[in-house]
Design a protein that fits this description.
Length: 224
C-alpha cells in the first residue's frame, strides 16, 4: 500500500468511526433521522475504502449510490429534518422516518439514471448549498442561545463542507493524483468526519440551552 492510499484509508476510517459512534449517540438520544444517516455515512466511507483497496465493481456501485444518496437527500433533507427537532420542534412519527429514507432511496435511483447525468453535479451542489444555508441558520440559533463556541464551530463545519462540495465535481486539486495528505479524498473524508462529530456536540449544546431557557424540547424519538 502506498502512502497516499494509506492516508485515504485513515480518512475513511475516521469517517467510519465518526458516523458509527455519533450515529449511535443520536439514535440513543431518539433522533433516528440523523442517527441512521450518520450510519450510512460510515457505511459509505467503509465501502469507499474497500473500493480503493480492491477496485471491486460491486463496491464501486455502492460508492456511487451511497455518495449520491447522502449528498442529494441524506444530508440536505433527512439531516435537516432531524435538526429541525430543535429549531422548529418538529417530531416526525416512525412512519415518517421510514418514509424519508424510502423516498430518498427511490429519488437517488432516479437522479442516477443516464438521462439525468449531465445535470447531476449541479443538482448535488445545489442541494448541498441548501444544507449549508441550514447549518448557518442552526449556528445562528446556537449563537442566539448563548452557545457562541458551538455556533462558531458549526459555521466552520458549514464553510469547510461547502468548499468540499464546490470542489467535488468541478475542480481538481493540483497534484491530486500524487499528493499524500493534501489530496481531495483525504481532505474530504476528514471534513465530513468533522461534520459528524461537531453536529452532535452542537446538537446537545442546543438541547441544553433550550432546557436551561425553560423551553424543554421532547426527544426526537417520542414518535406519535
Amino acid at each position: 500500500m502506498d502512502v497516499r492510499l494509506l492516508s485515504i484509508c485513515i480518512g475513511a476510517l475516521a469517517l467510519v468511526a465518526g458516523g458509527a459512534i455519533y450515529g449511535i449517540k443520536f439514535c440513543r438520544n431518539g433522533n433516528y433521522l440523523v442517527g441512521v444517516e450518520w450510519f450510512l455515512l460510515a457505511l459509505s466511507s467503509g465501502n469507499f475504502m474497500l473500493y480503493e483497496l480492491t477496485g471491486s465493481q460491486i463496491n464501486y456501485v455502492g460508492v456511487v449510490f451511497l455518495d449520491t444518496f447522502s449528498r442529494a437527500f441524506g444530508l440536505p433533507i433527512i439531516t435537516v429534518a432531524g435538526l429541525m427537532v430543535l429549531t422548529h420542534r418538529y417530531h416526525p412519527s416512525m412512519k415518517a422516518d421510514i418514509l424519508f429514507f424510502t423516498l430518498s432511496s427511490v429519488a437517488t435511483l432516479l437522479v442516477l439514471t443516464e438521462g439525468f447525468a449531465p445535470y447531476l453535479p449541479y443538482f448535488l451542489l445545489f442541494m448541498w448549498s441548501l444544507f449549508t444555508v441550514f447549518l448557518v441558520y442552526f449556528a445562528y440559533r446556537l449563537y442566539a442561545l448563548g452557545e457562541r463556541g458551538h455556533a462558531g464551530a458549526m459555521v466552520l463545519v458549514a464553510l469547510t463542507n461547502q468548499l468540499i462540495a464546490m470542489i467535488y465535481d468541478f475542480y481538481v486539486i493540483p497534484g491530486d493524483a500524487t499528493n499524500v495528505v493534501f489530496n481531495f479524498y483525504t481532505i474530504a473524508l476528514f471534513v465530513w468526519t468533522f461534520l459528524t462529530v461537531q453536529t452532535w456536540y452542537s446538537y446537545r449544546a442546543f438541547e441544553r440551552a433550550l432546557d436551561n431557557d425553560g423551553r424543554i424540547v421532547p426527544m426526537a424519538g417520542a414518535h406519535k
